[in-house]
Amino acid sequence: MLISCGTSCIYIHGISLNLCSLARYKNSWALRFSFRRLPHSQSTYAYFNPPPGAQAFMHEYSRVHLMTKNGFLRLLPFLLLICMDAKAADEIILGPEQLKSIGISTEKLSATQSGELSGMPAQVTVPSNQLYVVTSPLPALVEQTIVGIGDTVKKGQLLARLQSPALAEAQRGLLQATTRAQLARENQGRDAKLWKDGIISESRYRTTKSRYMEANATLTERKQVLRLSGMSKNAIIKLQEGKDLGSLLAVRSPINGVILEKTANAGERIDAVTPIFKVAKLYPLALNIQAPLESIRGLRVGATVSIPAYGAKGKLIAIGHGLSGANQTVLLRALIDKGTKNLRTGQFVEASIATASKSPSQQWDVPNSAIARINGKTFIFVQTQGGFRPQAVKILHEGVHSSIVSAPLIISDRIAVHGVSALKARMMGIGGGG
Q: What is the pLDDT of residues 415-430, one digit of tens each?
């Protein structure tokens, strides 16, 4: 005789025995079955695949007995017991003393906000349009630095003084260009009158006018060189008047901001375009988020981004179109405009992003210590009246300390967060009984 049994149905002698309900009260089980005869069934045998522990008994029973109505009634209690065991086999039974000795602790489930991805690794940065690098326009010797890292500065504030022989040479070039431009202007005015009176030819007048335009262009170039060297417009005017000729070069802040870096000190010789300071506006701040490819589904530009540990919030402004070569993640960029005083540039944080998930009630934020991986599947252990029940989950996002999982749970469930390895071993049949 062969018998078939699943966790919800038994097929025997052409009759379908369906498990309609299964309830447990304390240590007792209550089962309710429905019967129906299968059409076109002429077999006097059925098929049975019992759970471990009942196989030997049922195999021996099936070899020596044909199934009859009375035989079925005699076998029914064993079938009910086996079905009960099949349903309860997944539960890990543990008493209070065992829980204490193994060191298992639990905590209540934490539901995520509507479609929220939390625990995303991120780094605080300065938006590129708010960062300025202050360099030396000419080769120079650093005579004095006025500010240091962390200082707040205003636009035009003096940051450092440099001594540059090249500056003196540039000033001399301006004075020469000024003299030549003035002479060319006078020649052009004189020849214009002579040409109108018919004393000189038009070609001579055009040549004089061309020299004047060239001298004027050279003068403009020399002024621009000195402006790039840090000289103000008023200082250049005084220099053209023959005053304040010198080699002192003033380095000033281009914006209102904070000094982030200082790369030169007094007494150092530096080349042209050598960085001396980095100045930045620290409001708002940028956030670079590394997100797994499977986590970005449902993300939209404009979604709310928060850093719960520091009370900071902002908006998602860009979603990358490429993957990083090292860890195959997508770069997300956010702009943080609330709580920026609690953050520091370069700081590593964990961010949360609101998504457009259609089933937020099935998403749960669980500690990584609560997750067990068995044979390529992921489980958590839900506390029951008599122990723990392994529950398969799908990881939506795995963070540094916690992960977002999807599973049919309820908010009142409690899960194991410590001692999970012991529960995993008992689930796999390793170690003592449970």
A: 999 999 989 888 887 7
In sequence order, what DSSP letters do the residues of 113-140 get, joined into one string? STTEEEEEEEEEE--GGGEEEEE-SS-E
60 within 8 A of 54, measured Cβ to Cβ: no
β-pairing verdict for 387-392 and 28-37: unpaired
Q: Output the CATH code of domain 117-126+282-354.
A: 2.40.30.170
pTM: 0.57
Is 51 in a helix, a strand, or coil?
coil
> Under a CB-based contact definition with an 8 Å cutoff, are residues 343 and 311 in contact?
no
Q: Which CATH architecture fits 94-111+360-427?
A: Beta Barrel (2.40)
Q: Does domain 137-162+248-277 have CATH number 3.40.50.970?
A: no
- What would you measure as the largest C-alpha separation in the chain, in angstroms? 142
Tokens of 3: 């018998």
CA distance to 178, 219, 239, 260, 327, per residue, from 172 (Å): 10, 12, 9, 36, 57
For residue 32, the model assigns a pLDDT of 41
The conformation of residue 432, written as its DSSP 8-state character, comes to: S
Assess whether the previous peptide bond of 284 is cis (omega < 30° from 0). Answer: yes
Q: What is the 3-state secondary structure (H, E, C) of 203-239?
A: HHHHHHHHHHHHHHHHHHHHHHHHHHCCCCHHHHHHH
Residue with tokens 């380095």: 251
Q: Distance (Å, rounded) from C-alpha 320 to C-alpha 333?
A: 8
Provide the CA 423 distance to its chain's centre, in angstroms.
32
Quote the distance between the C-alpha of residue 144 and its chain's center.
41
Per-residue pLDDT of 80-138, as tens digits, reads 444 444 444 468 888 888 888 888 989 998 766 556 777 889 999 999 999 999 999 89
Average pLDDT, the chain: 79
Residue type, 299: L
Distance of alpha carbon 197 from alpha carbon 165, whole angstroms? 49
Helix (H) / strand (E) containing 97: helix 96-102
**Integer Cα distance of 306 and 310 in angstroms:** 9
Write the pLDDT tens digit of every residue in 166-180.
998 899 999 999 999
Q: Amino acid letter at 104?
A: I
